[in-house]
Amino acid sequence: MKSIREFSVNFRSRFEGFVRSVVNPEKGDAPLLKDSGALGGGPGAAAARPVAKRDPLLDAMKGFGIILVAMGHVLQGNVAPSDENFVFRMIYSFHMPLFFFISGYVLQVSLEGKRLAPVAYVVTKARTLVVPFLSWYLIFGLWRGIPSDVGLSEYIHRFARDPAWGYWFLWTLFLCFVAMLPVAWLQQRINPRWRLGLVALSWLTFHLLRSDRHAVYGIEFLKVDYFYFAAGFFICAWQKQLAFLKNWWPEICIVGFLLLVPYWRRVGEMPFEPFLKEHFPRKAATLILVFNYALALMGIGSVAQLVKAVISGPVGRWLAWIGHYTLDIYVIHFWVISLSPFVVIFYAPRRDPFVILIEVAWAVFASLMVSFLVLRQSKILKFLFLGILDSRKPAPIKAAL
Fold first, then answer.
1. Which domain holds residue 196?
2. Minimal CA–CA distance to 209: which of 178, 165, 164?
3. In the chain, is it the N or the C terminus that has fewer CB atoms within a 10 Å radius of its CB?
């Protein structure tokens, strides 16, 4: 009885601390965190030592993006067929490219003034991305049940061949970091005048990855998402050279995105595909690919402009705080969405927009609560399921400005 009472008091204390951190934002600078984290790559998910001040704009973009991820999965479960829903299609046209773009961008930032150590680089990314990837897959196996005729090693190997069964983003992001390693290493060791050749090297890597021979071990995801990762990496490196776009890129991104997104489809043919196949049969696939990339980049630019407009206010600070914990929300929200009580409470159909918004809020809040009260309270759990070796407690909401 004494141990139960102690557990109850301890849990109540943790819960009250969590609620205070959410309800009462504190003033001051955001915590100084080390690594590029697992989700969104921005400084944040895997912290170990202070090296640079967090960028509130990137954090807020990550926070906005993870809310879109939760909304997309809520819509996918509640609106059928989800691919006919315009909001769902709009979210899926750019929300994961957004995280790959930020990851590449922050990788470039993290290399400024530091010498890249390839072995430490790969080990760190494996710890922050592959460890949670495998841990959660094992949880999936325990939940669904591993087939009796399949051993544990074969089960893991099957998953490696087809990461779509689990948290594919973590594995694909790890592959992006590995694929970018030669470029990042060379960037620090060649004359700046030759760095344009790194784009050619990166493009060659991308071209080779797009070969139909690579269809296992997550390479099929890398074929698409490495482009956004590399785009973030090089755009960050060439900010001065791209300064001439500063005055009119927001309009191009916003207007272009709104004009193009109605024609995008996640599955099936896009409305203009029959025309391209009829008149440009050899170039149709390339033109569709260019359309997808252009639309996603415009969506990313639109998010950046939207977040920039609110970053100095309370909404921006909340988004930046949520952006500290995008990995937590990403790996947990699948589970809490299935436990949402609000359809029963409100006696409303699952298509009801109010219920959908409430379930999105539940997915974010409940994920953070599980992370703060359980995973982040244990060094072992934090390492296995979040890839974090840091011993610090979750930071309260702070004005990251």
1. 32-386
2. 178
3. N
